[in-house]
Amino acid sequence: MYSTNLTVPAPKIVDRQFKKPLLCGPGPCDVWPSVAEALTKPVLSPLCDELFNVLDDIRAGMKYLFQTQSNLVLAMSGSGHTGMEALISNLVAPDETMLIATRGIWDERAYEMAKRYGINAVAYRIPYNRSFSLTELETQLSKYRPAALFITHGDSSTGTVQKIEGLGELCHKYGTLLLVDTVVSLVGVPFFMDAWGVDGVYTSTQKALSGPAGISAVAFSARAEEKINNRKHDPPFYFDIKLLAKQWNCYGNTRSYHHTLSPPLIWALRCCLQEVCKETLPKAWARHAATTAYCHKRLQQMALEFLIPNPEDRLTTVTTVVLPKGYDYLEVVKYMIKKHNVLIFPGLGPTAGKSLRIGIMGVNSTIEVVDEVVNALTDALRALTKSSL
Ligand SMILES: Cc1ncc(COP(=O)(O)O)c(C=O)c1O
User: Fold this and answer.
1) Which residues contact 280 (CB under 8 A, 6 or more apart)?
2) Nearest-angstrom CA–CA distance, 241 and 226
3) Whose CA is nearest to atom 5 of ligand 1?
4) Are 89 and 235 in contact (CB under 8 A)?
5) Which of 53, 239, 274, 334 registers the highest number of CB atoms within 10 A of its CB?
6) Is 181 in the pocket of ligand 1 (CB under 6 A)?
């Protein structure tokens, strides 16, 4: 009856065939088989008891992963950027100063976000192929006495890991909150929120947790919580931690509606946490360290060089490796996907055109996966020699 009113005809949305590649870039990573199953669990309505029970499980699991006793732990609906934006918008007021320790693209994103909130964003930039010394960070902290310092623990654009231990104490000496991105490091590398004095932290699911993207856990220290409770500015409604704390029942007395959470993502995150809790963090860290050490040994046997000169600065979950002169990074990546269905990434931001990025993490942190990736890379370098050199 209404058909004559349609000005846009229905498109033909055909079925598509897609052969899933082995995901060994800096993320997303493959998901645990149990997580793939969890994604098909029933829909939970926003106010049913079972949803709130699942949220309680997630909060307990995330406290373990972040190693925090804090109550203000929950998950944001959105990918890792949502966690970044939630920390910045809740903890730093317009006109306050935020110092951004910058060595890769995630810090540049934080800088950009801070500027959009009217925050006085100050970037302290170092070369992309190393991490910061605590001494140089203290020099910047004493110079600016910022409301917050933003720093990335594991940087997937450069393949570097930053020492966080000791930084919380330094920040607090200058009245600064310490905000840390652990999107690509959590579970793959040791992290201790409370012991290291971290005030705000976020992570994402699609890296070493081996879950689907779209949900980002955050946690706040007592210091951060005090700032949130006494702040004069309003963050965006969707990111408001005061409101979300009620939905997530952070204080044990509220089970309320803020927005409709995605049941597949909630179930999936809960299942990722079950996997990590079953394995335990120390074993997950040891597995990642051993598998990556094996990967590095094989890359060295191929006479390839690491982009990051100091082994202590190299991130366990993402390795940046330099190809001999004459190879085109993108061509190598394309060959590996086409011939072997193995997906690794070329460099990004400061490392574009300078390295490959190989992600060995989560369910893919195994010797078998390393062999598959390195064998595919060996074949690519052999096959492409003539055309590229
Ligand atoms: C270290 C780091 N931080 C933040 C992000 C952004 O996360 P998302 O793409 O899930 O928004 C990424 C994504 O690769 C990342 O590796």
Assistant:
1) none
2) 12
3) 80
4) yes
5) 239
6) yes
Q: Is 107 in the pocket of ligand 1 (CB under 6 A)?
A: no
- Residue ranges for the known binding site are 357
Looking at ligand 1, which atom is closest to the CA of residue 156? Answer: 16
The label of the residue with tokens 């990722």 reads 272
> Whole-angstrom Cα distance, residue 68 to residue 70?
5
Please work out whether the CB of residue 27 comes within 6 Å of at least one atom of ligand 1.
Answer: yes
Pocket flag, ligand 1, residue 348 (CB < 6 Å): no
Q: What are phi and psi of 305, to 5 degrees?
A: -105, 150
Pairing of strands 177-181, 200-202: parallel
139-196 per-position pLDDT tens digit: 999 999 999 999 999 999 999 999 999 999 999 999 999 999 999 999 999 999 999 9
Query: Do the Cβ atoms of 255 and 263 come closer than 8 Å?
Result: no
Cβ within 8 Å of residue 286, ≥6 positions away: none
Pairing outcome for strands 73-77 and 22-23? unpaired
Rounded Cα distance between 351 and 346, Å, is 8
Ligand 1 atom, smallest distance to 153 CA: 1
Q: Could you read off the pLDDT of 100-126 as tens digits, one per residue?
A: 999 999 999 999 999 999 999 999 999
> Residue 341: left if φ>0, alpha if ψ -120 to 50, beta else—which one?
left
